[in-house]
Amino acid sequence: MKTFIGKIFTRGLLAGALFAALAACAPRETTLVLLSTNDMHARIQHFPRLAAAVEACRDTAQLVVVVDAGDRWTGNAYVDKAPTPGMPIVALMNRLGYDVATLGNHEFDFGQAFLGRMIDSMAFEVVCANLRSDTCTFPQLPPYVVIERQGLRIGFVGVVTNYEGPGHPAGNAANFEGLEFPDPQQEARRCAEELRPKVDVLVLVSHMGDDRDAELLATETRYDVVIGGHTHELRDTLVNGTLLTQTGKNLANVGVTTIRLRGKRVESVDYRIVPLAGYAPDPAYCAEVERYYADPELNRPVGEFSAAADAWGVANWMAAAVADEADAEVGFYHVGGVRLDSIPAGGMSTARVYDLEPFGTEIAVMRMTPADMRRMILSKYNDTENRKEAHRIDLVSTTPYEIITDAQDNALDVRFPQLREGRSYRVAISDYVFKNYRDLNYADGAITGVKVADVLLEELEEDSPLEPDNRPRQRITRRR
């Protein structure tokens, strides 16, 4: 009996030792969390909540990498009009410990030489695979970076849109002179082929828009996740087995991508869009943001609105303001240049005007016939390259017009009920439209040098309270 019990005991010890040995040899489980932002547009007022969310994650997760997919400034006067424009958002990102970012189109708003200097101030890696520079004013960026954490190699490839130019990101063409922007999807595929064998996790940080990201993923499956931006969408979608993500805009949310690995093999990838409103602001970051907001000139009240202006009311005001200033019969303003969706009733500060028009846009004037205007509107509506601005009313005007489309939403005609065909009209538009829109046909065109923001400030100072006109003057009618 003793011998039998001894054998059982010995076998138990051997089995336990074998189990322990096998467990020791089993691949280790690791969890990597990617915290992502995109299209923050300088909304530093939300940064204290982001800081709280990031620190809470760092307190609980094994590995945390913080990533941004571009458009860090343009949209908040306290950042855009700082002594060094854009520096407040960069300083906050450095303090929070961002790891890697790519470029958005708005990074170029102050010119490439300025951006080149700003990149030197960024304590995080900036990558962009589809940018070629041989100028002395702008450094050649690396296409990707590999970050090593606890034995894991994580590759980040960056790309930026080149569709809206075309051939370069959206913005004034002068900001991109001397730079080349090859096809971002082609470069993303090239980098994936080169980098995939060298890393355990491969991430594309993309500022080309969720529609273009989906096009890429239909053919490219070597990425584990795409952290996207540019189109301001909320995306949590699998495309051809790869996770496509985007958090919207203006730092309302943070993206949380959880990648679980067994050894060096990715077992699962999950994603959540987390609203930052659920976090109590970090007091230290609150104090820093308050310092940026303590600008007496930007806080100066300049006028007021008698009632709330909705999106139409804001755009109508800008179109009418440029027309009045230029003594034009017709005014146009492009929707992309209207950076506020609404203006509440009551007082309006200088900062709010610059939030509405942060680009330093100037007024351009020309003479156009209704046929010229029709050509401009149809070309923009049917644009196959800059799809972000196509198939919508992109030009708000002081004169009513109706876009006629077919069943496939192709614009066929534009009708101007208050204009006379063949007559030449004095037209006021933004210099962005004047410089960048294709199929513009006009006579006697010139940029006046008058800034739109100055005109808006003058109207507020002299004509307050302003009564908004929220009536839509443009519409789309589908032909049956």
What report would you give on this structure?
It is a single chain. This protein has 480 residues and is of the alpha/beta class. It has two domains: 26-291, 4-Layer Sandwich (Purple Acid Phosphatase, chain A, domain 2); 301-478, 5'-nucleotidase,  domain 2 (Alpha-Beta Complex). 31% of the residues lie in helices and 28% in strands. The chain has 14 helices and 24 strands. The protein has helices at residues 2-25, 47-60, 77-80, 87-96, 112-120, 184-195, 210-217, 283-293, 296-299, 311-325, 350-356, 370-381, 431-436, 452-463; strands at 29-37, 63-68, 100-101, 125-126, 132-133, 144-149, 152-160, 179-180, 201-207, 225-228, 234-239, 242-247, 253-262, 265-275, 301-305, 330-334, 346-349, 362-368, 395-397, 401-405, 411-415, 425-430, 443-451, 474-478. The strands form six sheets. Strands 4-3-2-1-13-14 form a six-stranded mixed β-sheet, covered by helices on one side. Strand 6 and strand 7 (152-160) form a beta hairpin. Helix 6 packs across helix 7 and helix 10 crosses helix 14 (452-463). The radius of gyration is 27 Å and the shape is globular. The protein starts with a helix and ends with a strand.
Integer average pLDDT? 94
Distance from first to last alpha carbon: 95 Å
- The 3D shape can be described as globular
Using only C-alpha atoms, the radius of gyration works out to 27 Å
Q: Name the CATH superfamily classification of the largest domain.
A: Metallo-dependent phosphatases
In CATH, the topology of the largest domain is named Purple Acid Phosphatase, chain A, domain 2
Count of discrete alpha- or pi-helical segments spanning 4 or more residues: 14
